[in-house]
Amino acid sequence: MTLSTGSRPVGPAKALPPGRYKMSGLLRSEWTKLRTLRSTMWTLGLTVFLGIGISVLACAETRAHWSTTQVSGFDPTSTSLIGVFFGQLTIGVLGVLAISGEYGSGTIRATFSAAPRRPLALLAKAAVFGLVALLVAEVVAFLSFFLGQALLTAPAIHATIGSPGALRAVGGSGVYLCLIGLFALGIATIVRHTAGSISAFLGILLVGPIIIRALPPSLSNEIEKFMPDHIGAAVVTLHMGSESLAPWIGLAVLCGYAVALLVIGAVLLVRRDA
Amino acid sequence: MIVASGLTKHYGRKLAVDQLSFTVRAGVVTGFLGPNGAGKSTTMRMIMGLDAPSAGDVTVNGRHYHDLPWPLHEVGALLEAKAIHPGRSARAHLQMLAEANHISRRRVDEVLDVVGLSSVAGQRAGKFSLGMGQRLGIAATLLGDPEVLLFDEPVNGLDPDGIRWVRNFLKGLAREGRTVFVSSHLMSEMALTADEVVIIGRGRLIAQIPIDTLLAQSSQRYVRVRSPEIGKLKVALDHMGAVTVPEEDGSLSVRGPDEVAIGELAASISVVLHELAPQSASLEDAFMELTEASVEYHGVPATHPARPAVTP
To answer: Which residue among A32, A186, A195, B146 is least enclosed by CB atoms within 10 Å?
Structure first.
């Protein structure tokens, strides 16, 4: 490859906006980072595929083996949202990769060179990732619901989006997925390494509940309802028991977790060397 | 201009940079010279605000990096080769940096062109060679057309053509009045590129001097002499005050008199000469001499397997 001469790479005359580098620029930068990686497309594609695919499969299976004894207690809405629990794994991995990939490759130093106010850079990343995750998750939730309900033909019972609680369950499960992604981003901001972050994320999501169930019931019931997976179950299920948090309260708690992790992450970003 | 004063960095109990003070002026290439592990990269990261100093201070154009309103328009830095996500294309990498600091997409194409990566701009950087990674890093430094540029070991992994290009490129940047700070562990590379050098060893400043002064100091010329009657010649040379060192290959290294004086002396005492060759001590030797006491990791020479490593 031949190199051009070393003469001055003349740039355009500098006409910079007043003040400092802006949030709008950081948001565009984070959007470029997110969309220019294949891993993003893979994890989002897998979220859509698994989320919708498993929901559809569950509904088709239910219809194929339908028996009248099932009618009482059958919840067509939550059946069509089963895929959400698979989607949370892939969206969590994407949340982790959004920042651990920068640490792993060294891109984080380029990022902080362009935006030395690190919490601002993290805020931009969380905003862009959160918005993308929310959009994809809502698409998954609504498509799962409508496809699933279409498959639950008579004699099986089905719900419509106008059924009591259905819109809340569908819309809420999209919000749940987005918050789980931000939760994972918060973990990865603290842990920094991909493998460690994914282990911590899966540990809290999947292993945590198993450990808590080993505790005496009086204790485990109290703790369990604050676990992310249990909050998710309460959002998706229409007839949740009294041992769960109410759906929106649960989502508010989960949002609190994600914000707390991201704030801790931001403090560590400032205090630690990049 | 970059000003470091009393810059110090501990990693745990290890002292990486120790009370380092120096000034990097605009309009010249300033080399940052020191053995591997001397603290060059740590110092550069502190200039960029990536690592926080344990003590002391460093400013760029009078400000801490953190306080620069448009960092990429004021400072461009190549800190490590291939500090880029392997799954992202060269263009995407530059574009995300450009967007963060209000730099146009046209400028991204310009800098790709300057470093000769236009034809592979869409390829994933993971496939790039080390040299291509370096060029991409150099392209990133130019995005904001900054006045201050930092390069950490920029010629690593480049072919001779690329090395020459970088050398001229750095000089060109300095000629335009920019501040150019470039690290290397190779004295010979600095001799060809830098106008001034900041030399450090074990995190401490050894010298900040113009390269010409350093070269004059270190270009201790000597003359290699061979003769069948080397003993007789040595006595005569010693007598006239020359410093003579017999070498393993039977030749004699003579410091003091030049080849003319030695030749005339040999003629006057009728000693036959087989070789009379002026030599100059290599720059690397001079550099080694300067930094000898401060080299952190001494290897055990392969020829003396029993000798323990020197631990200063």
So the answer is: A195
Domain ranges of chain B: 2-217, 221-280
Confidence band of B309 (pLDDT split at 50, 70, 90): very low
Nearest to B50 among A4, A29, A112 (CB): A112
pLDDT-based confidence at residue B131 (cuts at 50, 70, 90):
confident
d(CA A59, CA A79): 6
Mean pLDDT on A100-104:
95
E strand residue ranges, chain B = 2-11, 14-24, 29-33, 55-60, 75-78, 148-152, 179-184, 196-201, 204-210, 221-226, 243-246, 252-255, 275-280
Domain boundaries, chain A: 24-65+72-271
Rounded to an integer, the average pLDDT of B175-199 is 92
Q: Which parts of chain A fold into alpha helices (H)?
A: 23-35, 38-64, 76-79, 84-105, 107-114, 118-151, 166-191, 194-202, 208-213, 217-224, 228-236, 247-271
Peptide bond into A155 cis (omega under 30): yes
For B259-299, write each residue's pLDDT tens digit. Answer: 899 999 999 999 999 999 888 666 666 666 666 655 555 55
Looking at per-residue pLDDT, the higher value among A237 and A23 belongs to: A23
Contact A274 B50 (CB under 8 A): yes
Contact yes or no for B66 and A116 at CB 8 A:
yes
Cβ–Cβ contacts within 10 Å for residue B249, how many?
A: 7
Cα dihedral B104, B105, B111, B117, rounded to 10, equals 170
- The span from the CA of A16 to the CA of B79, in Å, is 26
Residue pLDDT, tens place only, B146-173: 999 999 999 887 889 889 999 999 999 9
CA dist., res. A110 & res. B72, Å (int): 10
Nearest C-alpha neighbor of B36 from the set B289, B298, B290: B298
CA distance A96 to A194: 7
pLDDT for position B219: 55
Kindly report, residue by residue over B200-211, the tens digit of the pLDDT: 988 999 989 898
Q: Which residue has tokens 């070498």?
A: B247
CA distance B92 to A32: 7
CB contact under 8 A, A6 and B106: no
Query: Cβ separation of B100 and A26 shorter than 8 Å?
Result: yes
Q: Cα–Cα distance between B159 and B129 in angstroms, integer?
A: 11
Domain B2-217 in CATH 3.40.225.10? The answer is no
Decide if the complex's ipTM is over 0.90: no
What is d(CA B49, CA B38) in angstroms, rounded to the nearest whole number?
19
Q: Which of B72, B101, B107, B193 to mutate to test the interface with A (most CBs of A within 10 A)?
A: B101
**A101 contacts on B by Cβ (under 8 Å):** 85
Amino acid at B228: P
- Name residue B207's beta-bridge partners: B199
A167 C-beta neighbours (distance < 10 Å), count: 15
What CATH class does B221-280 carry? alpha beta
